[in-house]
Write a structure and sequence with these properties.
Blueprint lengths: L6 E2 L6 E7 L3 E8 L3 E2 L6 E7 L5 E5 L2 E6 L5 E4 L5 E4 L4 E9 L3 E16 L3 E13 L2 E4 L3 E3 L6 E16 L12
């Protein structure tokens, strides 16, 4: 992630490092300091996962506050006006933003101690901490691997990872697609 330049949020209230983007989805890591309003992404769904820090609340005028704990994905629509209120200190968050009605994402956090099986639906693996091996690729903390639809197999390591699966959002379809 060190090679990814920080860039301002759409609304200028924070910074993010874009990991990967296509027309229908994107992955990024936001750097969060003080209280801030998130940028709007109308027509998109968001999965927000704190990577570190002491936790936070996502507040919205017309919805109950959404508690955010480190390494627990929080889901909300991109057009909702959301204010980030940290419990204390700076934090980072892994974000998945998908175009509603076209792509849907599943985000899960898993601790690895050895090997686990990766399905063909897994589009990206972000290494939160430790080291993870995917085939010949070795991920360190902050690294992301994009997987092709034909990639199915073992992930090995001693670390913590965020697995992002992307699916076509066609009703009744469980088909994944190649993220590259």
């Amino acid at each position: 992630m060190a090679g990814l330049a920080p860039r301002p949020w759409r609304n200028g209230a924070g910074t993010t490092r874009l990991v990967h983007a296509q027309a229908t989805w994107q992955l990024s890591v936001a750097e969060l300091g003080e209280e801030a309003e998130f940028s709007l992404f109308a027509g998109h769904d968001r999965a927000f996962t704190l990577l570190d820090g002491e936790g936070a609340k996502l507040e919205s005028a017309d919805h109950a506050p959404l508690p955010c704990h480190p390494l627990v994905p929080a889901l909300f629509p991109g057009e909702r006006i959301v204010r980030y209120k940290p419990a204390g200190g700076p934090a980072r968050a892994f974000n998945v933003i998908t175009l509603r009605g076209v792509v849907r994402a599943e985000v899960r956090v898993a601790s690895l101690a050895g090997a686990c099986r990766v399905s063909s639906h897994t589009a990206a693996i972000f290494c939160v901490r430790g080291q993870i091996t995917i085939g010949a690729d070795i991920l360190q903390a902050g690294d992301t691997a994009l997987l092709s639809r034909t990639c199915e197999g073992d992930v090995r390591g001693d670390g913590l990872a965020i697995f992002t699966s992307l699916h076509l959002a066609v009703q009744g379809s469980d088909e994944s697609f190649d993220p590259r």
